[in-house]
Amino acid sequence: MNISDDEVPLNRSARAKSSVIKDEDSDMDMGDKPPSASSVSDDDYDEEAPIKKRAASVSPAARKKSKAILDDDDFDDVPLSQTTQALKPKVTKKEPKAKAPKKEPKDTLKKEPKDTLKKEPKAKAAPKVKKEVKEVKKEPKAKDDGTPAPEDNDTYKWWESNDLDGEIKWTTLEHSGVIFPPPYKALPKRVKLLYNGQPVTLPPAAEEVAGFFGALVETDHGKNPVFQQNFFKDFQEVLKEAGGCDIEITDFAKMDFSKMFAYFEEKREEKKTTTSAEKKKIKEEKDTLEAPYKTCLLDGRKEFVGNFRVEPPGLFRGRGAHPKTGKLKKRVQPEDIVLNLGKEAPVPKPPRGHKWGEIRHDNTVAWLAMWRENVLGGVKYVRFAANSSLKGISDFKKFEKARELKLHIEKVRVDYRQKLKSDLMLERQMAVCTYLIDVFALRAGGEKTDEEADTVGCCSLRFEHVSLKPPNTVVFDFLGKDSIRYYQEVEVDQQVFKNLRIFKKAPKKPGDDLFDRVDPSILNKHLQNYMPGLTAKVFRTYNATKVMQDQLNLIPNEGSVNEKLVAFNAANRTVAILCNHQRTIPKTHEAGVAKIQEKIQEMVWQKIRLKKLMLVKDLTLKQKRKGYFEEINDLTKEDERAVHKYVIAKEIEKVQKKFEKDNIKLKEAKQPLLSKEELKTKLDKIRELKKEYTKEASSGKPIDLHPNDTVEKLEARVEKLEERIKTTCLQLKDKEDNSQVALGTSKLNYIDPRLTVMFSRKFNVPIEKLFTKTLRDKFDWAIQSADEHWTF
DNA sequence: CATTTCACTTAGAACTCTACCA
DNA sequence: TGGTAGAGTTCTAAGTGAAATG
């Protein structure tokens, strides 16, 4: 009854396996469904797999095709259309609010003006004017209210305006264009690339490219063979184009960049020695040069520009196993650049002897300049800064959209839970996808080409990324955005587990798509039915802020600002973990942890020594305060020796460093230097100490450095140490917990800033402790509009 | 429609500044 | 008082999703 066309022919070939499938299914669908439907659909599922598998193993393109066909058929399915119809009334009800482009007569109306916009700028005028009327409404407002002159922008509070919609982003726009990186300056003659041990004189263009690599030889990129080969190929090309050099360079392995590398290091050292006065002067010069580019005039208001600097040439640093990593990113010329500004705005002067690629006047977009980059063929934009009104408005809209999801999330969840048992493969896959996106905050996961790193999101998960451990544990292991690993072992809904097993059923094999019928556009189209503008990414924003709010609600409103701050960061961390925001463990991390651990050990040892000393002074204490002295045997002999060694090593280092330093000073002052003898005496003293420690270890009686100290004094010192141990342990835990988690990303992009403002107000934590300067600027709208009662 | 293009958000790495500590 | 770890900022790669295109 529910069989779709494409599934019928498959049935035949799959029959042989149907019994196995039925077994699994019988435990799965019993009772919930009409038996006939369930058995039929189960058979169908099984048979679909081979199709996808074949498609998947051929090529991404082929995969897509087969998908498309299958999906089409599903859409034609009777039961499907019935179910979606059930949802439709809702959608149409909400339609008036949303101007979401649907398949309706409207659509054509909309498209037309846009088409004409692009193709013939002149035709633009007509449709624009209409929209401008809308926009103009709020303009006079701002102008009338505001103080007379250019400072208008300071008083323009867009969030107090109630008309933030509209295609048009601006009516007038003036800016100064972009700053180009300085031209290449040839290296000093003595700094040369070596090839096969011989110095090579390269044409400047080739030397520049070699230098790009030379600066990276010691980095992970420089050591990556793909990076090396991509670099080498492009380098050879540049060299050839520039006329070559005296030696033929054919083998990357024979290139020696050490001279170049050393030179760059030298330069860096040099830079360190510049005095603060010099630095200040350099900075001032830079500031005056850049000032005109830093701001622009948007509808007459001054706004900040984000990245007004054109990206300098270099080697493309792809993340993860990127096939194009190391390729040469060419220098961008003014001729490559498209400027976007108002019709009446003066066109900034291009660099001498150059022309701009194009001047555009498109007020439906929010970029000021753009160029095409040669490695991936992508577009780079110069845009407004994060604290600009346009960015603020879209940020605000994003969070309002996520807030709106609150009203629909229940329906969405009920629906996908129910559809987990749908008779249609498409619906089941869609339900599981929605579940994963909602519960585990996975990204949508669009298709990627083989020109890019192999990373996935929800819809693009493959067989090998998900393993199943009955009864209902799933292990996710895949590389997500930026090739960051997502590894989670989690328990899932029983029906989700069963579905995943079906989606993985043979003959599906590694390399095949888990969700062969779903991609982000299909999924998003479906999500629109619940709420206009609902897409996969909205769930991440919604859940991140929701989790944050729930976590903040658990924090007791008491204690010091610092304690509250720690609690806030802990809440922030749960969000970061949900979103899998990671950072590479700092290279210094392990050493840092070891150092803190040693410090703790030393303090523990000191504490025990003090307690032992207390007993030396008054043995009766041992009976009187049993618990207090229990720990004096906690430290093993081994631990003790380790601490001794550490303390001694530290002392020695200290003495030696001081010795060297003092001598340098004496030398500068032309005073006689300290002799080796003096150092030796000091070191000898430490050796004495070492001996004493050894003795102490065997006798168990600590040396009393201050024989006059009373028991009370000792106890006070113990207490102080305990305090320090506690804080250091906390610090260690914090360091460990945070070592792999990046809190910044969620604070910047996912957590509604008004929630943070609410926390600040309600808990009396200065906003400066929660938002850095940049964040305060970016979220000014939130700071000014939310109070202690605000809720998401 | 499926695919490509465009515009925008999101992301960790790399760099710079600053506060803290011996 | 300089050396450094961590905080803060900048840079640009890598996603998402809608619209244009053929």
From TrEMBL:
A Pfam family per the record: Topoisom_I_N
GO cellular component: chromosome; nucleolus
Keyword vocabulary terms for this entry: Coiled coil, DNA-binding, Isomerase, Topoisomerase
GO molecular function, one term: DNA binding
Residue ranges the record marks as coiled coil: 676-738
KW DNA-binding (keyword) present: yes
Location of region: Disordered: 1-157
GO biological process, one term: DNA topological change
Annotated catalytic residues: Y750 (o-(3'-phospho-dna)-tyrosine intermediate)
Family matches, as InterPro entries: DNA_brk_join_enz, DNA_topo_DNA_db_N_dom1, DNA_topo_DNA_db_N_dom2, TopoI, TopoI_C_dom, TopoI_cat_a-hlx-sub_euk, TopoI_cat_a/b-sub_euk, TopoI_cat_euk
EC number: 5.6.2.1
EC class name: isomerase
Listed PROSITE patterns: TOPO_IB_1 (PS00176), TOPO_IB_2 (PS52038)
Catalytic activity annotation: ATP-independent breakage of single-stranded DNA, followed by passage and rejoining
Compositionally biased residues, Basic and acidic residues: 92-146
Entry keyword annotation includes Secreted: no
TM ranges: none
Residue ranges of domain DNA topoisomerase I eukaryotic-type in the record: 315-764
Record-stated family: Belongs to the type IB topoisomerase family.
Function recorded in the entry: Releases the supercoiling and torsional tension of DNA introduced during the DNA replication and transcription by transiently cleaving and rejoining one strand of the DNA duplex. Introduces a single-strand break via transesterification at the specific target site 5'-[CT]CCTTp site in duplex DNA. The scissile phosphodiester is attacked by the catalytic tyrosine of the enzyme, resulting in the formation of a DNA-(3'-phosphotyrosyl)-enzyme intermediate and the expulsion of a 5'-OH DNA strand. The free DNA strand then undergoes passage around the unbroken strand thus removing DNA supercoils.
Protein name as catalogued: DNA topoisomerase I
